Amino acid sequence: MPRATQIALGSLAVGLVVLAVKLLAWRLTGSVALLSDALESIINVATALAALVAVHIAAQPADDDHPFGHHKAEYFSAVMEGALILIAAALILREAWAALFDPRAIDAPAAGLLLVALASAVNAVWAWRLGHAGRALRSPALAAEGRHLWADVVTSAGVSAGILAALFTGWHWLDPLMALAVALHILWSGWHVVRGSVGGLMDESVPEAELQRMRDVIAANAEGAVEAHDLRARQAGQATFVEFHLVVPGGMSVDAAHEICDRLEAALRDAVDGARITIHVEPAHKAKPGGITVP
């Protein structure tokens, strides 16, 4: 089983455990803020399931119908996660708004807060694991889920602070007010998840720093060529698609030009994980000003 799929399965298990703990905390206390926290955990379980499916699809090899692979499946998972986050925020806003005009005392606050602290500790450890795995495996689905869990940890901390404030001051309206703050925080988190995923679906360019690193690799390994230009690169899950034009002397043989291309492809694969490289060879009169200079 691929490593990314194993981690996605772990996320589903962690999500179910955390959801059970938070629902118990809400049942014990009756806190609207804890209900909002539990609603977000329901979304965590749904997105963990979506990420598991997406990671499995993305790991499938290219086929006749998908010659460039299935890498973008992970972006659909991240977009779905963002949409579910927005739905959760809307549900929380509805509950919090109603409770704001009819606040009530919180039952068994100590037990509820202890359970929330336990759930937050589990989420924090797993969020760190997901973030590390998302970067190492170049998985947008795992990275998005990790960011969402970190947001959940922050949410739980805010909820706990609001409950403590309500207990010490006797201002029971602080509980639904904190739930409203949770909803706004979730909306902000959802926007960032969706924004990053849409960029991948729209074939957004890799960052300029990454492009410059590719230019440096090309310049250092294109000995025998004249120059290179029109470098483009985009990321799709674990794959990075790199394209550029390589200008060679007009009299160069096909074998010699191919040898330069092989050298460049090997160097770029060493520098860029998951690189898929396309090089268009052109004669000297196709050179462009401002291209990548070959020493």
From TrEMBL:
UniProt GO BP: intracellular zinc ion homeostasis
Recorded superkingdom: Bacteria
Bilayer-spanning residue ranges: 41-61, 73-93, 105-128, 149-171
InterPro entries, sorted: Cation_efflux, Cation_efflux_CTD, Cation_efflux_CTD_sf, Cation_efflux_TM, Cation_efflux_TMD_sf, CDF_Transporter
Topology of the protein relative to the lipid bilayer: Multi-pass membrane protein
Cell membrane listed as a keyword: yes
Domain Cation efflux protein cytoplasmic: 207-283
Molecular function as annotated in GO: cadmium ion transmembrane transporter activity; ferrous iron transmembrane transporter activity; zinc efflux antiporter activity
Family: Belongs to the cation diffusion facilitator (CDF) transporter (TC 2.A.4) family.
Subcellular location: Cell membrane
Any one Gene Ontology cellular component term annotated for this protein: plasma membrane
Pfam families linked to this entry: Cation_efflux (PF01545), ZT_dimer (PF16916)
The name this protein goes by in its record: Protein p34
PANTHER family, per database record: MITOCHONDRIAL METAL TRANSPORTER 1-RELATED
Organism: Pseudoponticoccus marisrubri
Keywords tagged on the record: Cell membrane, Membrane, Transmembrane, Transmembrane helix, Transport
Domain Cation efflux protein transmembrane: 11-202
